[in-house]
User: Fold Cytochrome aa3 subunit 2 from Pseudomonas luteola.
Amino acid sequence: MLDPYGPAARAVAWTWWAMFGFSAVVLVGVVALWLIGMRRPPAAVPEEKVARYNRRWIVWGGIVLPCVSIVLLLSFGIPQGKRMLPLPVEGVQPLKVEVIGHQWWWEVRYPESGVVTANQMNLPAGRPLDIHVSSADVIHSFWIPRLGGKIDMIPGRTNVIRLEADRLATHRGQCSEFCGMQHTHMILYSEVQTAEDFATWLKARQQWQAPAPQPEARSLFERECAACHQVSGLESPLGGITDETLLIGPDLGDVGSRSHLGAGVLKNEPGAIRRWLSEHQTLKPENRMPPLDHLRDTELDVLADWLETLTP
Assistant:
């Protein structure tokens, strides 16, 4: 949060430093008065003066000081918060990205280009982003600390936050609203690219033709996976899911090229998909993917070998 990579994140960081500085001044002042009060020798004070002093402390310390503090902080914080509102930008068209929270993974859509992925975002540097967030089940919260503030993802409601990245890097996002047992294992990786690289990535995803599975892999996928997953980029769809809004599990069209599996649980190295298929309930207990213990090792190998080829 204190290492910002964009204007919205810098606004959050400066707000934090302002609040920290102000609270430090208040703390030093209170401690100083406390030490003076402890070290000052006792003196006889008339009853009427005690009452007057008490009233002064109540008025100035209990009413005036908090009110002035709140006004100062709001006058500084409100303009900074406006940087994250989806306000019109002259001469620039913000990129719309839809992010849907699930227990416990992220569905990411680029509606203007029809691209769908999961647990990762590719973002162009130097262009405002309007992130439209919602939830498919319980309340989640979208937060990429180095890019800006967080915003709640509420079932049946769409909230929008304006972010922008001005440096190339890969950032870790995190669900920041407790949403169940695997809340901490709900990670979103965001790669900031140059505008040219982002356009190339988007075009490649739009034109991607996934390799058709062999008959055995197709049969296994349709029987075991297609009730919850789809594979974008296939000329002939698998199973019955054709509407993205019906997804229960992530779209697997680019699963072979993702940096991690299970929303950050397992690094996507050679053999990782095969391990996820057989150990996902151990790696991420209570996730909604049922165990595949009834499948033979050779069947899991066939399924994993095909999924590893999905690398647009």
Summary: The chain has six helices and twelve strands. Residues 5-82 form one domain. The first strand starts at residue 95 and ends at 102. Residues 140 and 178 are 7 Å apart (CA to CA).
